[in-house]
Amino acid sequence: MTQSNTAHKATGRRFRHATMRDLPHMQQIYAHARALMAANGNPTQWGTEFPRESVIIDDIANQRTMLLVDTHNGRERILAQFALCPGKDPTYEHIDGAWLDNDTYVTIHRIASSGLVRHAARDCITWALKHYGNVRADTHPNNKAMQHVLETAGFARCGLIQLLDRPTDTTRIAYQRHEW
């Protein structure tokens, strides 16, 4: 490899907690994700306003937001982001279906890829499973891409849940994977 090729090489994907300095870039990634969802037949999951800035800030302040980053041309770049929420999720109290178990779990919410690399969302889910073992998630019925990512990662489709924080378009497909 020549020296000029070496300078353009990306190094070491890794995870870290988001900080308030990351907020502007995170908002750009969420805007990219909303546009991509709309272009792929899913314009209503996040619409034009989700996730709300106040939620993103709260996630950062409470160290729930994880970033998948690497270094490219000597600079860190965010490849993907997600909220990792421990404890019982009130949205998951009622399900039309059944969870795999009632054990302690974490929930992945608000996952979004920057579009810079392939498989970034899958890498986030794999990391969560490795560190927590029992993981739940949900996605919009029109979000075929996320359904594919979850199902190829071994998640079971458990049923339907209703979001508590939205006035319309609230049905989501609920998933769980438990590393026994």
From TrEMBL:
Organism placement in taxonomy: Bacteria, Bacillati, Actinomycetota, Actinomycetes, Bifidobacteriales
Protein name (record): N-acetyltransferase
Species the sequence originates in: Bifidobacterium colobi
Gene3D superfamilies xrefs: 3.40.630.30
Classification via InterPro entries: Acyl_CoA_acyltransferase (IPR016181)
